From TrEMBL:
UniProt-recorded name of the protein: D-serine deaminase, pyridoxal phosphate-dependent
Domain Alanine racemase N-terminal stretches: 20-220
GO MF annotations, alphabetized: D-serine ammonia-lyase activity
Gene Ontology terms describing biological process: D-serine catabolic process
Source species taxonomy: Bacteria, Bacillati, Actinomycetota, Actinomycetes, Micrococcales
Pfam family, one: Ala_racemase_N
């Protein structure tokens, strides 16, 4: 439910617009810190995509360093003064890699993700093309697949639950790549990353048979990953003196923080608490990011139509990728249209109180993707608009 203070603050505002409830955002900063149980949190910036929100999170003592999406984003953050940047995904962007390697400050503060020798070859080509880079080293991190494969010794990867990311899965493969890094001049292996999406990014609430199976799968995956992750880390530490081992996600802090293998956790989405996070049993953060859009038509009894609204989240298409209708209560989508590019019809008893120009409040299903639709967020605290925070889109930054 959207508070009356938030609704009053946006009354009369030009819409559609995006909104951050700053009080909820700050509460979520503290909640994630408590759930981390003393481990530092590396901020996943792609889950915010708002520089001022990133700055506010990094000012909190529980947050240290960022997990960026791409080399251009990492360079932009570095130019803003952010340090200790890990790029969460391998990059083939040679122009951006060239800029990073050529700048000594960026090169020493940005860590590049790899999971194959091919990635090393690309970075090596960039290094050799830059005489000014000299003998300076590029910091790299190995991404290790953390998905769950039941009965892997029998079935291989035919049953794969979780994100398909890295081909590196066990200690043997990780050590082989670590030795390749050690054998090449100009590279320093400084970290490892593990992302357990089948735990951190999969909702488990509900009484259906499917959700019961999800909970069983997650318990089994937590146990399997703890054992495998410990073995992989121990093996790689024989080859390299690692600065950090990163893992977790907003949805897996409870298991990741107590496992004993990680030196830091990663999170960002929990600060905005998008619609997908309504489906977890072990935590509940306050919704902090919304978009509002006005009623522009009343096409008939029991119906209103709002402007735009078709901000569909990435992932497997389904009802859980649609924006959540946050206020007023008693509204639902039309089964024949759904959220649309230019208009979104809504029905239900909640339409009775709505008039032309009234605002309907929505939450995006995912966190950072909301910022791809707006140039800024209206920042509300204590029932008043206090500021406007520019998004990456508003700054012209393309991830």
């Amino acid at each position: 439910m959207v508070s009356s203070g938030l609704r009053r603050a946006l009354k009369g505002t030009c819409a559609p617009t995006a909104v951050v409830d700053l009080d909820a955002f700050d509460e979520n900063l503290d909640a994630l810190a408590q759930r981390a149980r003393g481990l530092p949190i590396r901020l996943a910036t792609k889950s915010l995509r708002v520089p001022a929100a990133i700055d506010r999170a990094l000012a909190h003592p529980a947050y240290s360093g960022v997990l960026a999406f791409s080399v251009p984003e990492a360079l932009s953050l570095h130019a803003r003064g952010v340090r200790d940047i890990v790029i969460g995904y391998p990059s083939l962007d040679r122009p951006a890699l060239t800029r990073m390697v050529a700048e000594a400050g960026a090169r020493s503060n940005i860590t590049v993700m790899i999971d194959s020798v091919d990635h090393l070859d690309i970075i090596d080509d960039v290094r050799r093309s830059l005489a000014e880079a000299g003998a300076a080293s590029v910091r790299v991190c190995i991404d290790v697949d953390s998905s769950f494969r039941p009965a892997e010794s029998w079935l291989g990867d035919r049953v794969h639950i979780g994100a398909r990311r890295s081909p590196i899965r066990d200690g043997r493969a990780a050590v082989a790549l670590a030795r390749q890094v050690a054998a090449r001049p100009g590279f320093d292996l400084v970290g490892m990353m593990f992302y357990e999406g089948q735990i951190a990014g999969t909702a488990d609430a509900g009484r259906t048979a499917r959700q019961a199976i999800v909970r069983l799968m997650q318990r089994a995956s937590i146990a399997e990953l703890a054992e495998r992750r410990a073995a992989v880390i121990a093996a790689v530490r024989e080859v390299a003196d690692l600065e950090f081992v990163n893992g977790g996600g907003t949805g897996s802090f409870e298991s990741s923080s107590v496992e004993g293998t990680l030196t830091e956790l990663a999170a960002g989405s929990g600060l905005f608490s998008p619609g997908l996070f309504d489906g977890y049993t072990h935590f509940r953060h306050r919704p902090a990011a919304y978009f509002v859009t006005p009623v522009v038509r009343r096409p008939g009894p029991g119906w209103v139509t709002v402007f735009k609204g078709g901000f569909i989240a990435s992932g497997v298409p389904g009802p859980d990728r649609l924006p959540t209708i946050a206020w007023p209560p008693g509204l639902e989508y039309s089964g024949l249209e759904g959220p649309g590019e230019v208009q979104t019809p809504l029905t239900g008893p909640g339409t009775d109180s709505l008039r032309i120009g009234d605002l309907v409040w929505f939450r995006h299903a995912k966190a950072g993707e909301l910022a791809e639709h707006f140039n800024d967020f209206q920042i509300v605290s204590q029932g008043r608009i206090r500021d406007a925070w520019t998004t990456y889109r508003g700054e012209g930054l393309v991830l």
